Amino acid sequence: MKVRTVNIKDGLPLVEEGKQRLASALARARCDGVELIRVIHGWGSSGTGGRLGKACRRQCERWVQDKVIARYCPGEEYGKGRLVTQEWIRRYPELKRSILTDTENHGITFVELPSRKKVLKVAATSSSPSINIILGDGDVAATFNAPPATKVGNPKVVRLTPPKARKLLRKTVKGFEEL
User: Fold this and answer.
1) What is the 8-class DSSP label of residue 110?
2) Domain ranges within the chain, ordered by starting residue
């Protein structure tokens, strides 16, 4: 499942508890390979927007800046004819089922996680006994000890997801150990 719905307003939590629920939902979604989260935070009883929804969106803005999430879309900016909606419905067809209730809905926010299929670089040099798997944004995803008999030349750049990179290393580097 690429899309998950999370209801953080259930039980009418205080803002801090709601933010904790959102962070937990994000962590679970990332582990489960979910790409888009439809967060239900409610509109608030005042009719002018609730504190939980505002806090959720402020948190999402910080996460975008810190590159924890790719982007977010408030429900009132979601709907037919909008570019983000068209793009997401094309990528996540299951959103079609809820387009009528989600369109311009102030009580929800969509959160898109960064793509798991980032460009990786498998880098190693003859002077180093380790092999680094580097994400496209420069973060080292994993470091492996190369066995002493392994001959390592110039860094090789390949497009891989982390599981594929590990599988490739298992095949090509006999006896490597993950650090």
Assistant:
1) E
2) 3-112, 120-178
Q: What is the pLDDT of residue 62?
A: 95
Q: Is the pLDDT of residue 80 over 90?
A: no
CB 52 within 8 A of CB 41: yes
Write out the CATH class of domain 3-112.
alpha beta
Residue 115 to residue 123: CA distance in whole angstroms: 21
- Predicted model pTM: 0.65
CB 158 within 8 A of CB 168: yes
Instruction: Find, among 10, 110, 99, 24, the residue nearest to 52 by Cα.
Output: 10
In degrees and rounded to multiples of 5, residue 110 shows phi and psi of: -95, 135
Decide: 38 and 110 in contact? Cβ < 8 Å: yes
pLDDT digits (tens, 9 = 90+) for 1-48: 799 999 999 998 999 999 999 999 999 998 888 999 999 999 876 555
